[in-house]
Amino acid sequence: MELPGTRLFSSTADRQGELDVDMQKITGASPSLLQGATSISSTSGNVYEHHVGEQQSRSTKLKRHALRGPRSAGWFGEFSNSESTYDPDAVNDHPSFPDKTLQEPGFSPEFPLSGVGSDFDSGRPAEWFVESPSGGAKHAWQTEYPPFEDDHPAGQPNPPWKNSGSNGFRQQYKFAQTLEDIANDAYVKNSQWFDSSVGQYDAFGRAREPSPKSDRYYVDWTPQTRSVNFSCGPPGCTANATLQVYNLVSEEVAKCKLSIGVHATDFDDDFSREVVEHLTVNGVRINTMCNPRAKGDCSAGTSTTNLTLFPCVSDYHIDNLVTTSGALHLTGKLSPMVDECPVNGNLLSGRATVTCFVRQLMPTTTLMPTVNARSMSTVGSSYTQTSVLHCQSPGCDATAHVKVDPTAVAGKKCSLSFTVSQTDFDGNEGSVEELEWVKVEGMTVREHVKPGGNPCQAAARNRSAAIVHDTFSVINGHNVTANMSDGLIEVSAKLSNMVDECGVGSFLLYGIVNVTCA
Questions:
Q1: Does residue 248 have a pLDDT over 80?
Q2: d(CA 260, CA 279)
Q3: Residue 143 — very low, low, confident or very high, per pLDDT cuts 50/70/90?
Q4: Which is the most buried residue in 105, 218, 448, 493, by most CB within 10 A?
Q5: Per residue in 152-176, pLDDT tens?
Q6: Cβ contact 158:173 at 8 Å
Q7: Tell me: the pLDDT tens digits for 396-454?
Q8: Of residues 399 and 361, which shows the higher confidence score?
């Protein structure tokens, strides 16, 4: 007789069979995973239970692996919010990204500090020293400090902040619900599940503070586009072009992106490799084997007016490729199989376009020489040309070109002088702070020049608000008469790595080259 709520087994084998069926229902394991348990005899119940436990553990692991599936885009550092509005601040910030830095600690003392006075007998947290940046009059951003208490939209917490050390406090991207979150919340989907962008606002309607990765960060900058055409004629030719991306004296730029397109000539590629073999920017190859798959108009006199540009490169980030002078040198190599339908006589014809956020440099409080990039003066029978030589980073080198009119200096004796403004040349604490070399027309004329001054340190010692960058003579009266025939004199100089402060404006090396003929 079987009592209600009970089950009787006629034998251990019957018990095994029933348990196997139950295990299949619980774990989803195939019979093959459990068949090892069927060989256990009625005298080895303990061994059977242990074996079933092992099979259950193995089955659970298999189920977990199946549920995990392929890695999400966020695990690879990319945007991982399905069909949500794309936001670059979410890149490299997903919780599953293995290389994400959760905390970059700054100085945040947790214990009392001795010897700092009775009024400040303990350290301040890092937040105490920070004021969140503002979107100014154009945008309202959330702030970590000063804080504002709000009720949070729809009861959801605002995007969190993290201490990123020297970069201050940054507000993190708030990701949408996961499937696990939905399951734990009685399968209720909040508004962020449909588009995670709605979770980036607080109860006041202020957007999350953007990071420098986002275009929203550059509220006081102006988008600016500059372009240059490039071309070359015969099959297999190489085209070269130079684009001045920005004026390093008066502008600073951020988030520069390069796009390159070519006009259709003989790129139908019906029987051969008719391609742009490679595109190189400042010595870095950024594209190979660009194939527009298009045939141009072979009628005579085809011009570039209103012609379609077929993309080879789109929105390529070049902040780390632009030279210290703000220039972009482009090289494109055409396949020798492209041999028909030129545009303006050129089988390779195209345009490179750079778009950057640009803002004007703020005026500095330092006093610097006011010399045009190139100037010319004549006093009596003498002839003078001037050029500026400068660069911005420790250990940098710079080159200046002085243009002269060979006919104006014919029969005259020409000499060159070079002066530099004092920056960080005091050699403090035994540092090697010098001009490592100065070259004229590729020949070294001075080495290990030590101007010896640091006007910022001098102003601090004298408690002066004005920083005066006195000049130091590096070359005086160097004869360059024999170099006048081509109308161009080249001068270059290199800083040592330890020159790292008190620049003239933004330039650690700032010099003036004069060529005088009389």
A1: no
A2: 9
A3: confident
A4: 493
A5: 655 567 777 777 665 667 788 888 7
A6: no
A7: 999 999 988 888 888 899 999 999 999 999 988 788 999 999 999 999 999 999 999 99
A8: 399
Which residues neighbour 391 within 8 Å (Cβ) at sequence distance 6 or greater?
Answer: 324, 325, 397, 398, 495, 507, 508, 509
Tally of CA atoms within 13 A in the half-sphere of 435 that contains its CB: 31
The Cα 15–Cα 8 span in angstroms is: 9
Q: What is the mean pLDDT of the chain?
A: 77
Q: Which CATH architecture best describes the domain 366-517? A: Sandwich (2.60)
pLDDT given at position 186: 62
**How far apart, in whole angstroms, are the C-alpha atoms of residue 420 and residue 470?**
8
Contact 344, 303 (CB under 8 A): yes
CA 512 to chain centre: 33
**What CATH number belongs to 222-360?**
2.60.120
CB 258 within 8 A of CB 316: yes
pTM equals: 0.53
Q: Where are the alpha helices (DSSP H) in 28-162?
A: 31-34, 45-68
Fold match between 222-360 and 366-517? yes
Amino acid at 60: T
Supply 93's token pair.
Answer: 């910030």
23 φ/ψ angles, rounded to the nearest 5 degrees: -65, -35
Tell me the pairing of strands 467-468 and 366-367. parallel
Q: Helix (H, G, I), strand (E, B), or coil: what is residue 185?
A: coil
- CA-to-CA separations, 211 to 143, 169, 208, 422, 444, in angstroms, rounded: 13, 10, 9, 36, 46
Give CA–CA dist 483/142, Å, rounded: 62
Residues 394, 489 contacting (CB under 8 angstroms): no
pLDDT of residue 73: 81
Q: What DSSP string runs through 91-124?
A: TT--TT-TT--S-B------SPPTTS-GGG-SPP
Cα–Cα distance between 162 and 169 in angstroms, integer? 6
Q: Where are the domains of the chain?
A: 72-216, 222-360, 366-517
Q: Which of 212, 192, 190 has its CA nearest to residue 201?
A: 192
232/343 Cα distance (integer angstroms):
10
